[in-house]
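Contributing new complexes? Match this layout with guanosine-5'-triphosphate.
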Amino acid sequence: MFSTTDTIIAIATPPGRGGIGVVRLSGPDAHAVARRLIAHDAPLEPRHATFTLVRLPPLRGFGGTRNADTTNDIDQVVALYFPAPASYTGDDVVELSAHGSPVVLRAIVAAAIDRGARLAEPGEFTLRAFLNGRIDLTQAEAVADLIDAATPLQARAAFDQLQGTLTRAIGEIDAALFDLIARLEASVDFPEEGYHFVEAGELAAAIDRLIARLGALLVGARRGRLVREGLQIAIAGKPNVGKSSVFNALAGASRAIVADAPGTTRDLVTEVVDLDGLRVTLIDTAGLRETGDEVEAQGVDRARQAQMVSDLTLFIVDRSQSLDPEDLLQSTDNKRLIVANKADLPPAWRRDDTVEISAKTGEGLDALRTRIAQALDAEPLADRPELTNVRHIALVQRAYDALGRARAASLADGGSLSEEFVLADLQDARAALEEIAGRRAPDDLLAHIFARFCVGK
Ligand SMILES: Nc1nc2c(ncn2[C@@H]2O[C@H](COP(=O)(O)OP(=O)(O)OP(=O)(O)O)[C@@H](O)[C@H]2O)c(=O)[nH]1
Ligand SMILES: [Mg+2]
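Output block (do not edit by hand):
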């Protein structure tokens, strides 16, 4: 599956129409294939923009032969050639920027395939960058995260990782670990010389320092995961209390239908929003009530499920109508905030444990956002965490645990036997750290990671 000897091609810009559409070729024949697609006669000059025409043989559906020499010019393009190894993938790369017409872009791809290129798999350009040693696995994962980012904070955390902050942090710990292992191996291998390359006390202290560094990474991990993965918030309550109105107000757009009649919302409506830097998926739900209407009943079921899987429920009540305490029991056990909506109308009651807002006037919305961030314990999100990805967190944790065992073994009075134990645990920790950068990543892990990418990346 991981061949790097053939030449791949894909449309690199998003599907649909746009001002510009880019087709990217990578592989040993990228330059040769590109030259057979364009009118420009000379070889492409590396890293120079060449304005030329895409010239193809007569194409079905492209009006047959227009020129006497049986070729067909289909678009103007700017061609860019990046010779190996100084390219995104580390292979020869050619990018053709055409007009963003799906028809033209597909014709270019089809013609390139005719000339020996192969359609790229999702993420295959980035996979090649990894296999060619241009980037490590955490950086490849950062590319996908950056493209997926929904908030500026997510984008910055991903870009830091792409720039190698995590690679460096892990690399330094790995190097210190390597040094320690080498010295310990020397004293195990040459015990008869009576030469101690590392004293027991020094060994424990050195392991402690490594544990502290991994521990510091893990401290930020919970927030890091929050930044990367975001959270889900369900908006629930009785019919007509203004759930969809609150949803729209938080989403900053009229996504869900709002109407006077109770039972308006029946299905789940979701929207991803940036809430103080946090990626939040808001879920609007059907009003909770007993109903004979089968469709609405299904909606109510979904509303209950949405509450159960969410990190927080905004339980909306109407402050202008009398409140039945029973209503509040409709909310499931998980974390919730009671939101008293329609605060612009004369109040029918008042409670201390609610956040008062008016979805209609926008009053109280900022306070609600703050309360949400507090409820999610996500307040200080301003700085960029280093560890955001569950895969990395699990491996750092594994290394941390292995070092804990190594430390205990180093203090046990077992002579050379305990040194062997210490060594085994230190090797374990190293293996975990190396898997983060992908130095020991099995093929199925790579396949899993790169399947997340879009084609053309
Ligand atoms: N005065 C006032 N009216 C509101 C406010 N929020 C919502 N409404 C009105 O209340 C009615 C119901 O609003 P929706 O947002 O559709 O309520 P819902 O809870 O989603 O209703 P269902 O989907 O039927 O369960 C509409 O007529 C809204 O205009 C508010 O803050 N103040
Ligand atoms: Mg609704």
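Reviewers usually confirm one structural detail per submission. For this one: The mean pLDDT is 89.
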